[in-house]
Design brief:
By secondary structure, the protein is mainly α. It is built from eight helices and two strands, in the order αβααβααααα. The protein has a two-stranded antiparallel ribbon.
Length: about 150
């Protein structure tokens, strides 16, 4: 039975889209006889025609994935979009590295592991980008001591 006309009328009366109009399957004949908006209003009062609730979008999966990403999961090669420099800019990478190097150099100088002159030489080398990481710096210092 084609109830598209009644559905359209009901949608305009209920002030919603046609997809959100619900017809009671047991009262299809009554709905088919409805020809005016007034008839539709009566059927709505009887509860034969209703407005379906708005469907929401579930955020549970997104929240779960965000927690996983905080832990460092889901960040492999297959999940990456954009170039290396787009994910972490060169300058930001440099700032993180140089701060770590300078902090470790300061600690070594203060603890007496290296003297002031060596500290200054190594500080300048770090600024020049000679050391990849703190581990590389420490390996270089070990070589100096030999």
């Amino acid at each position: 039975m084609d109830l598209s006309f009644q559905r359209r009328l009901a949608a305009s009366v209920l002030k919603c889209g046609e997809n959100r109009v619900w017809f009671d399957p047991t009262a299809v004949e009554d709905i088919a006889t409805a020809a005016t908006k007034e008839d539709i209003r009566e059927l709505i009062e009887q509860g034969v025609i209703k407005r379906k609730p708005v469907k929401g979008i579930c955020r549970a999966r997104i929240r779960k994935n965000r927690i996983q990403k905080k832990k460092g999961r889901r960040r492999g090669h297959g999940s990456r979009r954009g170039a290396k420099g787009a994910r972490m800019p060169k300058k930001r990478r440099w700032i993180i590295r140089i701060r770590a190097l300078r902090k470790s150099l300061r600690e070594m100088r203060d603890s007496g592991e290296i003297d002031r002159t060596t500290y200054r030489i190594l500080y300048r080398k770090a600024k020049g980008g000679e050391f990849r990481s703190v581990a590389h710096l420490k390996a270089y210092i070990e070589q100096l001591k030999r």
